[in-house]
Amino acid sequence: MKIELVEVGPRDGLQSEGVILPTATKIALIERLIAAGLRRLEVTSFVNPKRVPQMADAEAVLAGLPRHPGVSTIGLVLNRKGFERARAAGCDAVGMAVTASETFNRRNQGVGTEESIAAWREIAPAAREAGIAPNVTISTAFGCPFEGEIDPNRVIDIALRCADSEPVEIALADTIGVAVPTQVEDLFGRLRERLPQMPLRAHFHNTRNTGLANVCAAIAVGVRAIDASVGGIGGCPFAPAATGNVPTEDVLYLLNRMGIETGVSIDRLIDTARWLEQQIGKAVPGMLVKAGNFPRDGLAACGQVQA
Ligand code: ZN
Fold first, then answer.
1. How far does residue 141's CA lie from ligand 1's centre (Å)?
2. Catalytic residue check, 144
3. Residue 86: which CATH number?
4. How are beta strands 170-174 and 72-77 bridged, if at all?
5. Is the residue at 304 inside a domain?
6. Separation of CA 305 and ligand 1 centre (Å)
7. Fewer beta carbons below 10 Å: N end or C end of the chain?
8. Torsion sign, CA atoms 7, 11, 12, 15
9. What ranges make up the beta strands (E) of the chain?
10. Does the residue 296 lie in any domain?
11. From the CB of residue 166, how many other CB atoms can be counted at a distance below 10 Å?
């Protein structure tokens, strides 16, 4: 089995960091992640820089990033304007976020969920026409900091309506880290049943320490792409008390030891997480960065080829 790790550290990870990193440091981070073997990376977001100052250099990051064959740069967008910026900047893919919680959608994107779905319906065909791969993420799919529980029927309904515009993939996101494995199995299982051909991606935050258990549950019901951020950095500027994504190197350790292929080098990722600690001036939440790999020859012990 092969699982695709989608690195979201440069976007989801950095966006709520207090320290604004220089563009060159962000590019160096992305280059390190690519060198570790990651092939899909959410490199920035095209959002209002007044609301997310860390992402104000989105265009400069794309302009300064060398192109690598086989590597897909994803720009997060929340509306048509963001998409136009991502297209002009040369993103290979765009990820649109539609929030299952009406309240969260209004706070995060300034419009209601229906308007975001309408924007996605314009963005998806425009992206395809421009040779850009459009994907869509249903945020707060497992719970909302403002509304509490989210009706799974609403999540599935939104996902099905977004699927009409033929995304390359649909993700369900646990934006504030409240999901548990039974809920992950249930929601992704329902989606799989309704959209058996659609590639699915999972986006988990480890706020309540259920992140890796949720990764396992998602894989068990057919999810084949997992979002993760190096070091487990991040949060969400609009989700109170949200913490980082599942740490890429921790997820990778889990997958390696389960005999699942990713093509990513764990040693390079751990090195990058340690390097990142220097850049942001504090320890990252990930565990592998502290504990190290096991056994020391890591991937070789699983009979896999080091990328
Ligand atoms: Zn997130």
1. 11
2. no
3. 3.20.20.70
4. unpaired
5. no
6. 30
7. N
8. positive
9. 4-7, 40-46, 72-77, 93-99, 133-139, 170-174, 200-204, 225-228
10. no
11. 11
